């Protein structure tokens, strides 16, 4: 039974890092006889340049047909000036998330022992850090309506967005979070602003309700301002955190940065059947695009997550993760994670080292 | 000409820390012949317990009449169970901010050299840290309408809030931010999510427009997820940051925690005429309330900010800040900032040491 992977390199460093992840996927495909078929598509600025839209219908139908999607990154200054906001690269990404109902975003923040020094935090605060942030990805203020900019009676303009969640949206992301916690240390912290925002009062209520189905999981609640603080102060207090789209955007980036090596962090965006899109946590880094110096490991680890979550190929996923750990042990480092005494390698050398380690 | 200060101790550790700040205020009042008159009022849970509302009309009219307000903190588990959300302590605080139009919230995040070790970040990342976060405090999603929880046609509930800003709201906080930057290192970073939220597209546009009046200030823009990341990675890149109510809540707490000593950080909330309310950045800490161990320095430094910003008594403000620095040099520490070799003191001892240093 062949499995169909859609590969979307996107913009900036996207194509370079995806090239290396594809090499790794091809290697495990052969080695573990996975029967993967890879096909390419356009999204973001790359799609706009060819088709005049960041999410062409062709890409969307390929995405619907695929068993899983591997994405590089989207966006760059080249398209920031586009007057029509609907044509910007980010809209391609948001359209994929929403169109495929990829509501469950898993963002691990793991400190690799080999890279412990890279963190801006003291070693004792972050050593062994392993948090999973579960972010709702297809609702909340990202997609809420009404939204826009209108002219008021006095001639002034007013901008507005709507932060909205209904019970079923909250319930399904809560389940993803509790299930994730069950596979880990059974601690779930739900982040809200229930002392101010009604939408998160409902969020908290539903989390408590769903929690009754998971008596083994220790559920706690934290206001988002305190959560941002606690991530800086003592991040190891957390196991799994769950929150809405906007708070999740902010907290997952803060958590990722605690490790000091955002070039290492993968992510998964899953629908209700665990079909998913996989992408590095970092962005398209237009400033270093085309130089062959970007770190491909987050994308390679995203491919591993894809094998684990959507394709149920656990052995192949384990093999990739072990190979990444091995190249780090060998002292190979791209510029972003390089430190004195280590060997600085290019994007391609890093990708090939992982292939070799496999 | 006498100046009228309203003192609102509030809940939790509020009364203890405010007591010490009042001692300090009385001392400078005499020493510098400031002509301050202090009067007390109730807010938060303390007001609810007496009047059945967190913001009695009496407090509100005293607040309107005052030249400045010194607040401790509000909130605690005792009132969390109140069914009617309008009666919770936080609503007292939000009502004061909004009722007095205290839209300009200044939150400095300063690392005291004497407390450099308290940070969870590496010394080289935070030494000398001195950021000012300017947070819009009376608009945005905190106060936007419509808001609530409604029942949908299918019987499910939906929670919703509105993130809204008009041009004049943005313009006036932008001016506060640019003016603050002019008094500092002339660098202003405006934080938004203009790649997703229309309301922040308008925010960015107005910031650029107001920036033209301040050609000396270097204005930059950053997405909120990246800002959270950059605060963890390299906070010293920032001088002044300006953002809306919700993002400001999150980022100012993260920034405060970078210093490791949130018990040291004051804040000011100003109206258009620089009348203001002054409070510590930390909360009411109900877990340690009544034990006499809370750190009064953030409240004492809030009193100093009050003298500087609302009462134009710069010499008295300087004197308080110098006195705080002196007690730190003497090695006096409350529990929250204590480290080996230092002398652990109570709330009262700390307050009296500052008075003595004056
Ligand atoms: C590019 C942007 C729209 C996106 C988001 O805000 O979700 C990104 O920051 C992310 O976290 O994947
Ligand atoms: C207590 C709460 C309503 C308040 C806020 O969210 O503004 C607090 O977190 C703050 O930052 O002053």
From TrEMBL, chains A, B:
<keyword id="KW-0560">Oxidoreductase</keyword>
<dbReference type="InterPro" id="IPR019818">
    <property type="entry name" value="IsoCit/isopropylmalate_DH_CS"/>
</dbReference>
<keyword id="KW-0479">Metal-binding</keyword>
<feature type="site" description="Important for catalysis">
    <location>
        <position position="193"/>
    </location>
</feature>
<feature type="binding site">
    <location>
        <position position="107"/>
    </location>
    <ligand>
        <name>substrate</name>
    </ligand>
</feature>
<dbReference type="InterPro" id="IPR004429">
    <property type="entry name" value="Isopropylmalate_DH"/>
</dbReference>
<comment type="pathway">
    <text>Amino-acid biosynthesis; L-leucine biosynthesis; L-leucine from 3-methyl-2-oxobutanoate: step 3/4.</text>
</comment>
<feature type="binding site">
    <location>
        <position position="225"/>
    </location>
    <ligand>
        <name>Mg(2+)</name>
    </ligand>
</feature>
<feature type="binding site">
    <location>
        <position position="253"/>
    </location>
    <ligand>
        <name>Mg(2+)</name>
    </ligand>
</feature>
<dbReference type="GO" id="GO:0005829">
    <property type="term" value="C:cytosol"/>
</dbReference>
<comment type="subunit">
    <text>Homodimer.</text>
</comment>
<keyword id="KW-0464">Manganese</keyword>
<dbReference type="InterPro" id="IPR024084">
    <property type="entry name" value="IsoPropMal-DH-like_dom"/>
</dbReference>
<feature type="binding site">
    <location>
        <position position="135"/>
    </location>
    <ligand>
        <name>substrate</name>
    </ligand>
</feature>
<feature type="binding site">
    <location>
        <position position="97"/>
    </location>
    <ligand>
        <name>substrate</name>
    </ligand>
</feature>
<feature type="domain" description="Isopropylmalate dehydrogenase-like">
    <location>
        <begin position="4"/>
        <end position="354"/>
    </location>
</feature>
<feature type="binding site">
    <location>
        <begin position="283"/>
        <end position="295"/>
    </location>
    <ligand>
        <name>NAD(+)</name>
    </ligand>
</feature>
<feature type="site" description="Important for catalysis">
    <location>
        <position position="142"/>
    </location>
</feature>
<dbReference type="GO" id="GO:0003862">
    <property type="term" value="F:3-isopropylmalate dehydrogenase activity"/>
</dbReference>
<keyword id="KW-0963">Cytoplasm</keyword>
<feature type="binding site">
    <location>
        <position position="225"/>
    </location>
    <ligand>
        <name>substrate</name>
    </ligand>
</feature>
<keyword id="KW-0100">Branched-chain amino acid biosynthesis</keyword>
<comment type="similarity">
    <text>Belongs to the isocitrate and isopropylmalate dehydrogenases family. LeuB type 1 subfamily.</text>
</comment>
<feature type="binding site">
    <location>
        <position position="249"/>
    </location>
    <ligand>
        <name>Mg(2+)</name>
    </ligand>
</feature>
<dbReference type="GO" id="GO:0009098">
    <property type="term" value="P:L-leucine biosynthetic process"/>
</dbReference>
<keyword id="KW-0520">NAD</keyword>
<dbReference type="GO" id="GO:0000287">
    <property type="term" value="F:magnesium ion binding"/>
</dbReference>
<keyword id="KW-0460">Magnesium</keyword>
<comment type="function">
    <text>Catalyzes the oxidation of 3-carboxy-2-hydroxy-4-methylpentanoate (3-isopropylmalate) to 3-carboxy-4-methyl-2-oxopentanoate. The product decarboxylates to 4-methyl-2 oxopentanoate.</text>
</comment>
<dbReference type="Pfam" id="PF00180">
    <property type="entry name" value="Iso_dh"/>
</dbReference>
<protein>
    <recommendedName>
        <fullName>3-isopropylmalate dehydrogenase</fullName>
        <ecNumber>1.1.1.85</ecNumber>
    </recommendedName>
</protein>
<keyword id="KW-0028">Amino-acid biosynthesis</keyword>
<keyword id="KW-0432">Leucine biosynthesis</keyword>
<dbReference type="GO" id="GO:0051287">
    <property type="term" value="F:NAD binding"/>
</dbReference>
């Amino acid at each position: 039974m062949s499995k169909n992977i859609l590969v979307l390199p996107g913009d900036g460093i996207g194509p370079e890092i995806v090239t290396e992840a594809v090499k790794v996927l091809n290697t495990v495909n052969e080695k573990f006889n996975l029967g993967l078929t890879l096909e390419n598509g356009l999204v973001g600025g790359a799609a706009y340049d060819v088709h005049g839209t960041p999410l062409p219908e062709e890409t969307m139908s390929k995405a619907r047909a695929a068993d899983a999607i591997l994405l590089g990154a989207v966006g760059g200054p080249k398209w920031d000036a586009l007057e029509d906001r609907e044509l910007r690269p980010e809209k391609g990404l948001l359209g994929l998330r929403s169109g495929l109902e990829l509501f469950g975003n898993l963002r691990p923040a793991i400190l690799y022992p080999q890279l412990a020094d890279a963190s801006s935090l003291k070693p004792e605060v972050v050593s062994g850090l392993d948090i999973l942030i579960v972010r709702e990805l297809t609702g909340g203020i990202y997609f809420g309506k009404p939204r826009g900019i209108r002219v008021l009676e006095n001639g002034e303009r007013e901008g507005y967005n709507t932060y909205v969640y209904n019970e079923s949206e909250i319930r399904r992301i809560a389940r993803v979070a509790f299930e994730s916690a069950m596979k880990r240390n059974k601690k779930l912290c739900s982040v809200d602003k229930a002392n101010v925002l009604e939408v998160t009062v409902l969020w908290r209520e539903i989390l408590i309700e769903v929690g009754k189905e998971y008596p083994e999981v220790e559920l706690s609640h934290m206001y988002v301002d305190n959560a941002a603080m606690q991530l800086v102060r003592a991040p190891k207090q957390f196991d799994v955190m769950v929150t809405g789209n906007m708070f999740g955007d902010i907290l997952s980036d803060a958590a990722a940065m605690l490790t000091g090596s955002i070039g290492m962090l993968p992510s998964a965006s899953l629908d209700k059947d665990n079909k998913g899109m996989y992408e590095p946590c970092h962005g398209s880094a237009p400033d270093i695009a085309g130089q062959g110096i970007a770190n491909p490991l987050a994308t390679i680890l995203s491919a591993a997550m894809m094998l684990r979550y959507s394709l149920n190929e656990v052995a192949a996923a384990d093999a990739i993760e072990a190979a990444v750990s091995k190249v780090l042990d060998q002292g190979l480092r791209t510029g972003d994670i390089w430190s004195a005494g280590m060997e600085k390698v290019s994007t391609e050398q890093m990708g090939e080292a992982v292939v070799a380690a496999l």
